[in-house]
Every structure is written in C-alpha cells, then in structure tokens.
Amino acid sequence: MSTPQPPMPQAAPTWQPAAGSAYPAYTSPIPVVRTHLGHAVASEWTKIRSVRSTMWTLGVFVLLVIGVGLAAAALVANSSSDLSGQNPLALGFFGLLLGSMCVMTLGVLTTASEYGTGMIRTTMTACPSRGRVLAAKSIVFFLVAFVVTLVATSLVAFAQVAILSGHGAKHPSAGEWLKATVGVSLYIALLGLLSLVVGSIVRHSAGAITIMIGAVLAPLVVALFMFSQSLAGVRKALFEYSIPNQLSVFYANSLTSSGPSGWDPLWIALVVTAAAFAGAYLLLEQRDV
C-alpha cells in the first residue's frame, strides 16, 4: 500500500484591490490640532491647582499676611501710642515679609519638584518646546501669586484702616492704597517668579529655596555686623537694596532715608527677574532633562 503524500505547500495569494477601487484612508477619532501656548498654560494650571503643596503654601501665606497684620493692628490700637498722622497700612509689612517665604517656596516647587520626581520628562515629551513650558509655568504662577497676594493684602488693609481709624491714624491716599495693595502684590509675585526661575536653573528644591531665603535675609544680616567705617558705603547699599527694605518702600516706611523710593523696587525686581529668566531659558535649551 502506498503512503499518502502530504499536500504540497502553495504560495500565499497576493491580494490586490478590485479594479477601480482604492485603499480606504484611516481617519483617527482623536482630532489633531496645532498646539500653542494656551494648551501649555492649561496643562500647568491643572498641575498647580491639583497638588497639595499649592494649597498648603498659599494657605499658610494668607494666614500669615492676615493674621500678623490684624494682630499688629490690634496691638497698636490697644497701646497708648499717638497715631496721629501715621499710615495704618504700614502695619501690613510684617505679615507680608513672613508670607513672602511661602510664595518663594511655591515658586521653587513649581519647577524644581518636577526635576526631583522625574515628571519633567513627561512634561517635555508632551510639549517638546522647552521655552513654551517655562513661559507657561511663569504665566500661571505669576497670576496665581498676584491674585492671592492682592486679595490678602486688600483684606488686611481694609481691616487695619477700620481698626485704627478711631485712634488718630490718617486715612490713606489713593496712591498709598495702590502701592500697599496692587504694587506690593506685583512685587511679591515677581519675587515668587524669580524663585521659579532659580528653581529651573538649580533643579533642586532645597538648594533653590536656600538661595532665595539667603537673598532675602543675608544682605540685611551682613549689613548689621559691618561696624568698620571703611565699609560704610557697602553697609548702606546692602540696607538700601535689601529685599525687606524694598518691600517696606511700598508702605512709605523705608529703613533708610536714601535708596529706592516710589515704584523703584518694582522696576528693580522686574529687571532682575527678566535677566534670570533669560539665563534659565538658555540653560534649558542646552541641558538634558
């Protein structure tokens, strides 16, 4: 009996479309749009409002500004000091100086924390334009810091005027109101934006926060211990251009009789922040993530 032979393999048929037909084009159900800065801003807004660090730092900031401001006003109102001719808005300086540390911390965390967790790789993959990412972070943070500071300083300013109006304190002028609310809020927002840029440069949260706290406190502390007469010019410059003194200018309560006045601190902060932003952009384009 003969053994059955296995069937011979046949070549796979070559498929061809029927005459007159064409290959159907695939259409993705996901719309393809050209991305722009608005998309990056929306992404950064989602980030900053969804992390707990934002609520904690801004919450402590508001408590410090309002709590210390009201406590200072209450202490002055209960004292026997003569308040005739004094500006009650000046008492908002103390809470805002302490609260500025919270804004600087949040600014650093907005950028440096992503490098610490590795989230920056995902961010840059979603938006390869690094300059756009830095610009979006800056816009969102600046607006958030400005609005929160404006609300807090306005509330404490109205409360201080109401508390001290019956104790001889003068009624602030429109210019004093503007500087003690809008002006100082712009300054604090720029200070926080500078912290954001430093965080992008250093890429380390603790290091960047230390740098910013040192920038706020070190000049004033060093100037206090410059007793030599030969260093009088340096001591004077450190006093005049220290951040606490520039902050006090907005309340017409400068630590020195010379140096920045009026709106000068705001322009100084703007120039310094712009220069740091340019440096951060150049480094961001050159370094790996």
Give an account of the 3D structure:
The protein is 69% helix and 0% strand. The radius of gyration is 29 Å and the shape is elongated. The mean pLDDT is 85. It contains 10 helices and no strands. It has 289 residues and is an all-alpha fold.
Q: What's the layout of helices and strands?
A:
Layout: H1 37-50, H2 52-78, H3 92-117, H4 119-126, H5 130-164, H6 174-202, H7 205-224, H8 232-241, H9 243-249, H10 264-286
Helix pairs in contact: 1-5, 2-3, 2-5, 3-5, 3-6, 3-7, 5-6, 6-7, 6-10, 7-8
Shape: elongated
The string of secondary-structure elements, in order, is HHHHHHHHHH
Determine the fraction of residues in helical runs and give it as a percent range. 55-70%
- Computed CA radius of gyration, to the nearest angstrom: 29 Å
Structural class: mainly alpha
Tell me about the largest β-sheet: none
Distance between the termini: 76 Å
Instruction: Please report the number of helical segments.
Output: 10
**Share of β-strand residues:** under 5%
What is the number of E strands? Answer: 0
Name the poorly predicted regions: none
Nearest-integer average pLDDT: 85
Short description:
Helices cover 69% and strands 0% of the residues. The chain is mostly helical.
